[in-house]
Amino acid sequence: MKRLSGLTNTNCVGTIEIEKQIDFIVYPNPVQNSININAEENINKIVVTSMLGKKMIVKSANSNSTVLNTASLKSGVYVVNVYTNKGVGTKLIVKEILTHSNLMVVRT
Predict the structure, then answer these.
(1) Cα separation of 72 and 86, whole Å?
(2) For 83, how many CA atoms within 13 A lie in the half-sphere containing its CB?
(3) Is the separation of the CB atoms in 82 and 88 below 8 Å?
(4) Which of 12, 35, 89, 97 has its CA 20 to 30 A from that of 46?
(5) Concatenated DSSP letters for 24-56?
(6) Rounded to two decimals, what is the model's pTM?
(7) 4-58 pLDDT tens trace
(8) Is 79 a domain residue?
(9) Does residue 107 lie within any of the structural domains?
(10) What CATH number corresponds to the domain at position 90?
């Protein structure tokens, strides 16, 4: 062992397993009550988390496309993770809720 400035170097070698990043499509974005998710590979699981890391929605899937109900989410930004046998993909979505101030009334 070598000592450098009070630190001990034990020459440890380790491995880090990194999942392959996959691409997927999520629409519409911003979302309201549901989103469509499409991937080239079969989707195993979808996890939607808040920006604080809290799991908000977890859905099992067995298809390369699915619809996810987002009606329970409050307005904000969320992370969508899509898991397949080939890896995981990550995208951000924005949840917006229509309010009276967002609506425009047209009188004829």
Answers:
(1) 30
(2) 10
(3) yes
(4) 97
(5) EEEESSSBSSEEEEEEEEEEEEEEEEETTS-EE
(6) 0.73
(7) 445 555 555 666 556 678 899 999 999 999 999 999 999 999 999 999 999 999 9
(8) yes
(9) no
(10) 2.60.40.3080
